[in-house]
């Protein structure tokens, strides 16, 4: 099972690469010139975006929560959304796997693309989308089931895995979430018996057990103590090689420690978006500077 | 506004307000004692009523068993209930328990599945507007006097059953059972819905976030999480069905017998008590005391169901915090 997931990812990547190559080869054959083999820098960067958000507006009823948000989220990196409460960062996150569908009055317009898939399309299969884009919530929400059944929940929904495949998948996910050693002897014990930090790592294991490409994290550490927070941050550092991670956080140290790119939101707009180093050390915008230096918010 | 004078004025006024007399401490203390006494009296009152009822039931039941005409083995070991037949009196409680069970099983076969499904619909599926209409309508069902259900069973359900199948007696267990089921439906539905609503929405988000459909979330996460509440709702509904009186007295007849035939006339424990209490039986004969023995048995059954319900709720309750 585990290898299958890996190979699935590889196959998808290989496919895109192949098609890219094919295009290049065709062009090459057509133009008869070797220079075209080198892709233009823009082409390369487009290839690396996991999520493209262009000019996205969002409303809850009459209240406009997002105003023309444009962010391109790079593949296999950690992108942090920061900003004061109510600035729309969670709203944006919840559009990325359509969790906002559960809110009757929420709607959005603009472009939200994952590869070629239009995530705002009415016809999109949200079940498959949520398999590809996993989410971890602010408050750890393990199901009142055993640790094993929690992690196996998603695979049981989406795959026809047999018992031993499921066991492999559960072990793999728990290892990835750095929880295996702590729980391997009590997989059949209730998940609610775990500590808060363990529960949150269990939720991460549960999210990656279905083989997502993107992992959304909505303030995953806000209810945790510093030690558990550190554990989760280490975990994100390890996961970034395989997953695209988008994290919403109120903790600016956390954003500066563990993200590659940072977007600063204010009143539903993206004030500034760029490499984390630059946002924190040399922001272009005065508001961003005030916020990251702790002068407001 | 913020001139020094006006601020000084304000300060003076506040100073005089703060310096004024407080409410009398003694008055406060007396009022607190008075409130406490009223509260304790009310609590003790309901406790005393309960103790008095149980006491009367218990002493009169003991009187019943002290009689020469009845033995405990006859009471608990026989299915013959003929307290009014002069020389061949027999007090086999199973005839009445069997009638009660038959009606309860029929009632629950209707109320439990329908109530649970309705609760799931209301809690997980129904749009807010539908819910706003459906829930009060269901609660109206619970407010209909049971005597209305009783004659509804007799004049509507029974003829319909007889039209379906000729073998139904005028008084039969099915008709009363269906009416009791309808009566219990709102109980099951409202308690089960409370249990479903008590499941934190973070668990719903969790199920949806992993790509679960509404059905996945309901069946695999929410129902199991609400299981203890649902079971105790079921037990309360069963207790209610067992204790229901008016419907069965009107629609099920008055022939105590051990039977599994739902088309037949039966008598339930409550039905017998109504017959006794409403008839002209003297208030000291053995048949009079038999009423208390039946009442005590019924009380023990419903009490144990309530207690099992409480144990289930406490033991299997998931602590989410």
From TrEMBL, chain A:
Keywords: ATP-binding, Nucleotide-binding, Phosphate transport, Transport. The keyword Signal does not apply. Residues 51-292 form the ABC transporter domain. SMART domains: AAA. GO terms for cellular component: membrane. One of its GO terms (molecular function) is ATP binding. GO terms for biological process: phosphate ion transmembrane transport. The keyword Cell wall biogenesis/degradation does not apply. InterPro entries: AAA+_ATPase (IPR003593), ABC_transporter-like_ATP-bd (IPR003439), ABC_transporter-like_CS (IPR017871), P-loop_NTPase (IPR027417), PstB-like (IPR005670). It holds the Pfam family ABC_tran. PANTHER family: ABC TRANSPORTER I FAMILY MEMBER 17 (PTHR43423:SF1). This is Phosphate import ATP-binding protein PstB. The gene is pstB.
From TrEMBL, chain B:
GO terms for biological process: phosphate ion transport. Residues 97-309 form the ABC transmembrane type-1 domain. One of its GO terms (cellular component) is plasma membrane. The chain crosses the membrane at residues 33-58, 91-116, 137-161, 173-196, 217-239, 289-312. Its main location: membrane. Keywords: Cell membrane, Membrane, Phosphate transport, Transmembrane, Transmembrane helix, Transport. It is a multi-pass membrane protein. It holds the Pfam family BPD_transp_1. The keyword Membrane applies. This is Phosphate transport system permease protein. It comes from Rubripirellula obstinata.
